[in-house]
Amino acid sequence: MDANMIISLHNVNFYYGPSRALNDISMDFPEKQVTALIGPSGCGKSTLLRLLNRMNDLIIGTRVEGKVLFEGKDIYDGHVDPVEIRRKIGMVFQKPNPFPKTIYNNIAYGPKLTGANAGDLDALVEQSLKQAVLWDEVKDVLNKSAMNLSGGQQQRLCIARALA
After folding, report:
1. What is the extent of the structural domain holding 124?
2. 136 and 79 part of one domain
3. Do 110 and 41 belong to one domain?
4. pLDDT digits (tens, 9 = 90+) for 55-76
5. Which of 24, 31, 122, 124 is deepest in the core (most CB within 10 A)?
6. Residue 81 belongs to a domain with what CATH number?
7. Distance between CA atoms of 45 and 36, rounded to whole angstroms?
8. Total of domains in the chain
């Protein structure tokens, strides 16, 4: 793997039962850069994204061929914990899915589960919301329900949650 590539796919095929959804995909994702997947509806963009954090594992009858490397390690190796992969490779869905909690707790939820220091949460929440360009809009209402945000704000909240 090239030192600047965080994710590399090598000859990846993906199947839903007997039906092949991805055919011989080889590509690299550079570290700390944005990569866009563009294509018509049904061409496999979402399938590919779910493949990267093993969300497809939750669908009965799916299988992967080829190699999917994250930080140089094959994430489909039998010794790799899919939950650990999902902690490192977040996914933000097209339709926002905020938790029915406060704005603050939407961001702090994951870090709390993984044992983050309570004293660091305020700074982490602020940093994540700033990275998602939402901080200025919500900094005075962090204790309000995330469900009351607009669709665009909910989407950015979900991005901030993934970043946290």
Report:
1. 103-163
2. no
3. no
4. 999 899 999 999 999 999 999 9
5. 124
6. 3.40.50.300
7. 10
8. 2
